[in-house]
Amino acid sequence: MAHVLVINSSISGDKGQSTQLSQQFLASLPAGFSTETLDLVQDSYPHLTMTEMAAWMTPESDRTDEQKALAALSDDAVAQIKKADAIVIGVPMYNFGVPSQLKAYFDRLARAGITFKYTETGPVGLLQDKPVFIFATRGGLYQGTPMDSQTPFVTALLNFIGLKDLNFIYAEGLNMGPESAEKALFAAKARIAELATAIAA
């Protein structure tokens, strides 16, 4: 795990629980790795447009300057994913879904012919698999219920592009009183320690 890509999407910044748990996870890893951090709130992607998708589908040699700039949003995001040996994603729950900033980022990762392709037997992800650690923080209790729209969406999207070694770390009930929050964070930290031990081994 020489290079770790860290993706934060909390509108609370460094005070966000998903961001803080991600940082605790990084601090628990063995020394000797480098990190690259994306703050999707400070450096947000715009909503995807047909103009941008058209830039992807235009041969690189034929792109206008505007198309080159638009295509670079996705090209750079995919290059960062490819470069990483492991990925850490902070995913707070807002209104039962992933942050819109994270959705806009994911939209740049799903590229036909680049990160996935369709075959006679269905879609195939083209990215080399690598560990992904997803810190899902929620104010209520949703894991394993129909109200958890995040887990199936994130799983489907990442699997679709070839990333299947997914590790979800949940911290739920954070807005259900101090005792509930403390219990959730304790369980998340225990899971972090478990993962860090497995990586070190």
Automatic annotation (TrEMBL):
The keyword Iron-sulfur does not apply. SUPFAM superfamilies: Flavoproteins (SSF52218). FMN binds at residues 10, 93-96, 137-140. Its cofactor is FMN. It holds the Pfam family Flavodoxin_2. Binds 1 FMN per subunit. Gene3D superfamilies: 3.40.50.360. It is an enzyme of class 1 (oxidoreductase). Residues 3-194 form the Flavodoxin-like fold domain. Keywords: Flavoprotein, FMN, NAD, Oxidoreductase. Its EC number is 1.6.5.-, 1.7.1.17. InterPro entries: Flavodoxin_fold, Flavoprotein-like_sf, FMN-dep_NADH:Q_OxRdtase_AzoR1, NADH:quinone_OxRdtase_FMN_depd. It catalyses: N,N-dimethyl-1,4-phenylenediamine + anthranilate + 2 NAD(+) = 2-(4-dimethylaminophenyl)diazenylbenzoate + 2 NADH + 2 H(+); 2 a quinone + NADH + H(+) = 2 a 1,4-benzosemiquinone + NAD(+). GO terms for molecular function: oxidoreductase activity. Homodimer. Belongs to the azoreductase type 1 family. PANTHER family: FMN-DEPENDENT NADH-AZOREDUCTASE 1, FMN-DEPENDENT NADH:QUINONE OXIDOREDUCTASE. Quinone reductase that provides resistance to thiol-specific stress caused by electrophilic quinones. Also exhibits azoreductase activity. Catalyzes the reductive cleavage of the azo bond in aromatic azo compounds to the corresponding amines. This is FMN dependent NADH:quinone oxidoreductase.
